[in-house]
Amino acid sequence: MTPAPAPNNLGVILRVSLYILIGWLSLLFIAPLMFWILGTRDTYFVVAALTTFTAAALANAITVRIYERGRLSDVGLGSSPTSTGEFLVGTGIAALAVMVILVGAISAGAAHFQRTTRSEHPAASAAFVAIVLLFGAVGEEMLFHGYAFQLLIRKLGAFATILPAGIVFGLAHVNNQNATYIGIGNTMLWGILLGYAYYRTSALWLPIGLHFGWNVTIPMFGVNLSGFTMGVTGYTLEWRVGPWLSGGAYGPEGSVLATVIIVALFIAVHRLFPERNEGVERLT
Question: Which of 1, 161, 224, 226 could be cross-linked to 152 through a Cys-Cys bond (beta carbons 3.0 to 4.6 Å apart)?
Answer without folding.
Answer: 161
